[in-house]
Amino acid sequence: MKNEILQQAVADSRDGITISDCRRDDNPLIFVNPAFERMTGYSFEEITNINCRYLQNDDREQPELKIVGEAIENGEYCLVVVRNYRKDGSMFWNELSISPIYDTSGSVSNFIGIQKDVTARILIQQSLREENKSLKQMRLALEQLAIKDGLTGVYNRRFFDMQLDIQWGIARRTAELITLIMIDVDHFKDFNDIYGHQAGDEALKHVAICLDQAFLRSSDFLARYGGEEFVILSAGMTLKQATAFTEALCERVRNLEIPHSASHTGYLTISVGFSIRAVGLNEHASVLLLEADKALYAAKINGRNQSFGH
């Protein structure tokens, strides 16, 4: 029972967790959790049984890396912040702590690493320190690193596309069901025409916050797919759970009571389509997208303000 709880905690952790084997040549990683895959863009298969220095690409002239190397050599704990690079080449600041694990003889056999993406914190610190840096340079740096939608603050389409591939690979390896939920704000063009685009932007912000606060688990995440569309990725949901969850999403948005005279309810509502799949060996994640999109279309033609899925 304790092992099951521990495994679930590691799988659901928001922080990346890695284990390396310092008894083997070059101290390769032998385990990474799903959060580490999501953080870096690399799959479990790509990054195990090799040393994790690939995360720095050619950016190896970092004093902190020497601290890490000395800690591993001496079997000691250390905490550093280093520049790492995702699979797509984008840089993020990684707060890394490593701790030794001892075998029954008292010798260090492994190191466990905890990884946190602290990019936002470092950028704020840099902007405060570098007051003379031009606003244009700062904006370009932020845009390069951004994974959030500028209007709503939730994840953006680029990050979703990367996460879909990662979650798909995890589901294939673990034989866990994967759920994709597509959400469309009903009659949103009419809303903009009636109340104006500024009111439309404010409505999207409220809807995004409402959806983001509805998550069941820390590993679930929301992204703005485009315009008035949002998507949610989740793992391990049953059909019954997904049905109840998506119906609750519709209710939560209705309860915002954002006036909308073109809606038959009098308020802004959403339509939701979802698909749950066990990942086939040769299937691509686009299958999940297509099925969820068809389910969303069914929810719309059946009257909107509802969810539909399978």
Residue windows where pLDDT falls under 50 for at least 5 positions:
none
Q: Work out the helicity level.
A: 40-55%
The percentage of residues in β strands lies in 15-25%
Q: Widest sheet: strand order?
A: 2-1-5-4-3
Give the total of beta strands: 10
Order of helices and strands: HEEHHHEEEHHHEHHEEHEHE
Q: Decide which structural class fits the backbone.
A: alpha+beta
Query: What profile does the largest beta sheet have?
Result: 5 strands, antiparallel
| Through-space gap between termini | 32 Å
Number of helices: 11
Mean pLDDT: 89
Layout of helices and strands, plus pairs?
Layout: H1 2-12, E1 16-21, E2 29-32, H2 34-40, H3 44-47, H4 63-74, E3 78-85, E4 91-102, E5 108-117, H5 119-129, H6 135-145, H7 157-174, E6 178-185, H8 188-195, H9 197-212, E7 221-226, E8 229-235, H10 239-254, E9 270-277, H11 286-301, E10 307-309
Parallel strand pairs: 9-10
Antiparallel strand pairs: 1-2, 1-5, 3-4, 4-5, 6-8, 6-9, 7-8
Helix pairs in contact: 8-9
Question: Could you characterize the architecture of this molecule?
Answer:
By secondary structure, the protein is α+β, with helices and mostly antiparallel strands. Helix content is 42%, strand content 23%. Helix 8 packs across helix 9. The chain is globular. The model has no long low-confidence stretch (mean pLDDT 89).
Features:
alpha+beta, 11 helices, 5-stranded mixed sheet, 23% strand, 5-stranded antiparallel sheet, 42% helix, 310 residues, globular
Short description:
This protein is an alpha+beta fold and 310 residues long. Helices cover 42% and strands 23% of the residues.
